[in-house]
Amino acid sequence: MKTFSIVPENNEKSAEILCPVCGGAKFDSLWDCDGFSFKQCLSCGLLMQNPQPLFEALDKRYDEEYFRYEQENDQIFFELMLKGLSDIGFDSLYSDRKDSMSFLDIGCATGVLVRHFQDRGWISRGVELCGPAAEWGSRERNIEIFSGTVEQASFEDNSFDVVHCSHLIEHLNDPSAFLDEVFRILKPGGRFICTTPNASGLQARLFKSKWRSAIADHMFLFSVKTLSGLLREKSFTVETVKTWGGLGRGYGPVLLKSILDYLAKKLNFGDVMIISSQKR
């Protein structure tokens, strides 16, 4: 399945930024892509677009076309999200909790995971920047989705037992501020679960600028090291890191793909990572 991405407009406003992980200001040009490029922080190794489009430009990208993409693929994404949660042992973490738990999915698209947890008896909410997706999910799935950013939602302190985001953090202008907000709205002992492409995975190392996640919509590309470091910087305790996906479909024999997929999961060099962290 092709990763959704747009062709940026030539007149998008942009700005230079410092590295959100270490505050570094020195970068090395690493990957030249089609109309944009990724640079690497010389201090911590984080990959990012720099300069980056401003939020006002990014906001316009998540329109009806994006909504249709999410709507057409929501069951595929749902199954992948459940697989990731299973990999980190999510159900075993909460098997002894009998009280109603609170769950927030940021970047929830049409809200398929929000509805799943609502059906399990959780107090479940979503946040989605794409207005058409938020509106459709709220109406058709009978769930609560805030249309906008999590900062704009203005949730109270210590509101949620679990905050989840899948393939969101790489799209943000300021992942550091985002994690500050997640930490604020999590209850003490609450967990933040984040899935994102893995820049230290095998596919990123092999394909570089041709990697399927090196796209215009991704402002940052985290490795296990850089994302774990940012989480710790924001006072999260990193509990579990899992990765999956050794070789994309069509890049080799089925047997080779099966072997590499197994090794990627076993040795943590998969194409996608999921990190579970806790607010202590």
UniProtKB/TrEMBL annotation:
Entry annotated with the keyword Transferase: yes
Record-linked InterPro entries: SAM-dependent_MTases_sf (IPR029063)
Pfam family, one: Methyltransf_23
One biological process term in Gene Ontology: methylation
Coiled coil residues, start to end: none
GO MF assignments: methyltransferase activity
Keyword Methyltransferase: yes
Keywords for the protein's UniProt record, in alphabetical order: Methyltransferase, Transferase
Name of the protein in question: 2-polyprenyl-3-methyl-5-hydroxy-6-metoxy-1, 4-benzoquinol methylase
Source species of the chain: Spirochaeta isovalerica
